[in-house]
Amino acid sequence: MSPQIITLIFLVFAVVMFAWEKIPLSITAMIVAIGLSLTNVLTPAEAFSGFVNSNVLLFMGMFIVGAAFFDTGMAQRVGGIVTKFAKTERQLIVAVMLITGFMSGVLSNTGTAAVLIPVLIGISAKSGFARSKLMIPLVLAAAMGGNLSLIGAPGNMIAQSALQEIGMSFGFFEYAKVGLPILLVGIGYMAFFGYKLLPNHSDQELDQDSVFAKHEDYSDVPKWKQYFSLIVLVLTVVAMIFESKIGIKLYISAWIGALVLVVSGVLTEKKAMKSIDMHTILLFSGSLALAKALEKSGAGELLAGKIIAALGSHPSPFILLFVVLLLSAVMTNFMSNTATTALLVPISLSIANALGADPRAVLMATVIGGSMAYATPIGMPANTMVYGIGGYTFRDYLKAGAPLIVVSLIVSMILLPILFPFYPN
User: Fold this and answer.
1) CA angle in degrees (0–180, nearest 5) for 297-302-38
2) Helix axes 394-419, 3-20, angle to 10 degrees
3) Does residue 130 fall inside a structural domain?
4) Structurally, how many domains does the chain consist of?
5) Contact indicator for 11, 299 with CB cutoff of 8 Å
């Protein structure tokens, strides 16, 4: 059996098991990783390389930084300030999405979510609103906000690099021509309709062994620990903002912050270790193995090529746009958004060359579609990060995120032909 067929079998298995949830998602992901290794689709080093992936290291560091912010009671204090201005659940959702969306436009969308998660936990504890009502809006806004600038998401730079090789490029805020309307319409949709689809899980359903699940009296915590946890969090964010200027990777900044908090005694080693959600780590690492197999075996390219080839040699520009958007949007929910964009960018360029279409238009559609990782817990690292904290199921993401994909596709289908026509005059 060819590696392509084996990979597609594991892809179907993962999709079915993720939706069925008879066994934990993290276990399904690891079964896939081990299966791909045993069948020689991937080497063991490739199958388990996710454990040293930069996003996994970022998760771990920010789990610790976030735990200190929460464990000292500072998150609750910050949450109390925010809830003074957002009295209702809907107002809070809109505020969270606006802040997250615009932050993720200039920061890493994953880094933005990682930093704001402990703040939202504090808001939840202070306001009484369930975490499950806030965490999905957070990651949806982080995904949408990634399309506000060149640096908002890794996929944006992948497309930019491909364009530069053929002497073209996107401007720094060019993605925002489509990304900003999607963000604003998406927030409006969540405020008036989407919030009704958010799950309402009580905090008691969360893992009680997690440092985030505890409700404690923080009055005895020394003030210096509270403020020090805030200072470290802020400095970590600043380091992430100026990543390219200071030459320090996001995950290194996260771990510097984590180590400072433990060494200073703000957070004990035991609590730091307990704050690292291994369910998240296993789920993300296992899904990276599947993404690697789709890329290495050519199965992902085969799927994309077959679908596009079915359109014929002279497809309608409108049909082609819809297919590129839909293909990217579907794939990004089962691979990482970065892997989806990396896989589809060269294919999209080939399509543009073969059909005489504008490469910028085809790549813009690819990137915009690839950012619609709204409907599964594995489409984007931030989605995975809140999976355990929000007490979510696979269906929770699907129910809240799938309608937003439809909304985003409609906005894209209106704006892209106007702003980035496939065949400009």
Assistant:
1) 25
2) 120
3) yes
4) 1
5) yes
Give, as one character, the DSSP assignment of residue 147.
G
Q: For residue 301, is it within any domain? A: no
CA separation for the pair 361, 349 (Å, rounded): 10
The per-type count for the chain, helices as H runs and strands as E runs, is 21, 0
> Does some domain include residue 230?
yes
Cα–Cα distances in angstroms (integers) from residue 297 to residues 36, 44, 289, 301, 313, in the given order:
11, 15, 12, 9, 26
Which residue range forms the structural domain that includes residue 271?
A: 53-151+178-276
Give the residue from 181, 184, 115, 104 showing the smallest Cα distance to 149.
Answer: 104
CA angle 284/3/354 to nearest 5° reads 90
- In-domain check, residue 264: yes
pTM of the model: 0.74
pLDDT tens, the chain, 425 aa long: 899 999 999 988 987 887 676 888 789 889 999 999 999 999 999 999 888 888 788 878 888 988 888 788 887 777 667 666 777 888 889 988 998 898 888 766 777 787 788 888 878 877 778 888 899 999 999 999 999 987 788 788 788 888 887 888 888 889 999 999 999 999 999 999 988 999 887 765 555 555 455 556 777 889 999 999 999 988 988 888 788 789 998 889 989 999 999 999 999 999 999 888 887 788 878 888 887 888 889 887 787 777 777 877 677 888 888 988 998 999 889 877 777 787 788 778 877 877 778 889 999 999 999 999 999 998 888 898 888 888 888 899 999 999 999 999 999 999 999 999 988 87
Tokens found for residue 146: 């990634």
- Helices (H), ranges, 298-358: 299-309, 317-332, 337-355
